[in-house]
C-alpha cells in the first residue's frame, strides 16, 4: 500500500510540475474565494459586535475551518471521486476490480490534487493563528483536530453516496458537486439559519454539523458527547456507503 501511495504522490507531483501554470491558477482562485469569505467577516462584524453569541473571530475561525476541511478533502479524494463517476458511467471499473485492493478505496489512489495541498497549508496556518485568540486546553485541541478529521470524512462519505447513484441513474454525475455546494451555502453559524434548516442539515444531511462543530468546541458549545455522536454518524454513513457500493456493484455493467 505504501508503494502505491508513493507512486500516486510521484505521479501527482509530476503532473503538477507539467501543468504548474494551471495548478497555481487553481490555487489562486481558491485563495481568492477564501479571502472573500474572510473579508465578509469584517463586513458582518465590527471589532465589538456580537450576533447571536458570535463575534468576528468566531466567524473567521468558522470559514477558515471549513476551508481546511474542504481543501483536505480535495487534496486526498477529489481526483478519485471524479474518476469514479466517469468509470461508473462509462463501464470502466474493470481495471479496479482486477487489482488485489479493495476497489472502494483503490479508486482514491489515482492521484492527489496538489493545488489543494498548497491551499491546505495556507488555511491551516491561518486557522492556527486565529486559535491564538482563545484559551484552549490540550483536550479541546485534540477535540478540534478530531472534529476537523471527522468533517473531512463526512464530506468524503456524503460525496461517495451521491456519486454511487450513478450505478442506477445515468444522469446522476452532477450530484458529485452537491455536497461541496451545500458546504459553501451552509458556511455560516448554525444559529443564523431557520430552525427547519438547522434540523435537516444537522440530523438528516449533517453538513451544518461539519461546518460548525470545530467552532462550537472552541466556544464551549460542543461537548465530548456531541463529538462522539458526530463520530458515530460518520461510522454509520461509512457502512451505508459500503452497502450502497456493494448493491451498486451488483447493478454494474461493464463496457467490455
From TrEMBL:
<feature type="transmembrane region" description="Helical">
    <location>
        <begin position="222"/>
        <end position="240"/>
    </location>
</feature>
<feature type="transmembrane region" description="Helical">
    <location>
        <begin position="21"/>
        <end position="39"/>
    </location>
</feature>
<feature type="transmembrane region" description="Helical">
    <location>
        <begin position="191"/>
        <end position="210"/>
    </location>
</feature>
<keyword id="KW-0812">Transmembrane</keyword>
<feature type="transmembrane region" description="Helical">
    <location>
        <begin position="143"/>
        <end position="170"/>
    </location>
</feature>
<protein>
    <submittedName>
        <fullName>Membrane protein</fullName>
    </submittedName>
</protein>
<keyword id="KW-0472">Membrane</keyword>
<dbReference type="InterPro" id="IPR010390">
    <property type="entry name" value="ABC-2_transporter-like"/>
</dbReference>
<keyword id="KW-1133">Transmembrane helix</keyword>
<feature type="transmembrane region" description="Helical">
    <location>
        <begin position="59"/>
        <end position="79"/>
    </location>
</feature>
<feature type="transmembrane region" description="Helical">
    <location>
        <begin position="104"/>
        <end position="131"/>
    </location>
</feature>
<dbReference type="Pfam" id="PF06182">
    <property type="entry name" value="ABC2_membrane_6"/>
</dbReference>
Amino acid at each position: 500500500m505504501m508503494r502505491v501511495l508513493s507512486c500516486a504522490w510521484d505521479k501527482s507531483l509530476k503532473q503538477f510540475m507539467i501543468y504548474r501554470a494551471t495548478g497555481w491558477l487553481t490555487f489562486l482562485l481558491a485563495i481568492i474565494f477564501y479571502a472573500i469569505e474572510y473579508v465578509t467577516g469584517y463586513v458582518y462584524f465590527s471589532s465589538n459586535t456580537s450576533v447571536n453569541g458570535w463575534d468576528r473571530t468566531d466567524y473567521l475561525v468558522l470559514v477558515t475551518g471549513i476551508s481546511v476541511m474542504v481543501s483536505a478533502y480535495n487534496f486526498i479524494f477529489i481526483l478519485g471521486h471524479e474518476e469514479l463517476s466517469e468509470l461508473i458511467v462509462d463501464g470502466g471499473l474493470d481495471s479496479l476490480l482486477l487489482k488485489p485492493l479493495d476497489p472502494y478505496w483503490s479508486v482514491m489512489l489515482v492521484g492527489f490534487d496538489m493545488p489543494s495541498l498548497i491551499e491546505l497549508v495556507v488555511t491551516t496556518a491561518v486557522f492556527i493563528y486565529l486559535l491564538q485568540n482563545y484559551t484552549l486546553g490540550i483536550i479541546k485541541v485534540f477535540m478540534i483536530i478530531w472534529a476537523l478529521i471527522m468533517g473531512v470524512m463526512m464530506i468524503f462519505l456524503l460525496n461517495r453516496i451521491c456519486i454511487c447513484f450513478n450505478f442506477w441513474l445515468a444522469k446522476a454525475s452532477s450530484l458529485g458537486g452537491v455536497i461541496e455546494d451545500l458546504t459553501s451555502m451552509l458556511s455560516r453559524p448554525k444559529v443564523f439559519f431557520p430552525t427547519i434548516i438547522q434540523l435537516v442539515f444537522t440530523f438528516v444531511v449533517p453538513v451544518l454539523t461539519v461546518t460548525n462543530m470545530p467552532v462550537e468546541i472552541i466556544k464551549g458549545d460542543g461537548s465530548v458527547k456531541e463529538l462522539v455522536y458526530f463520530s458515530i454518524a460518520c461510522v454509520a454513513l461509512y457502512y451505508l456507503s459500503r452497502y450502497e457500493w456493494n448493491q451498486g456493484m451488483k447493478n454494474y455493467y461493464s463496457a467490455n
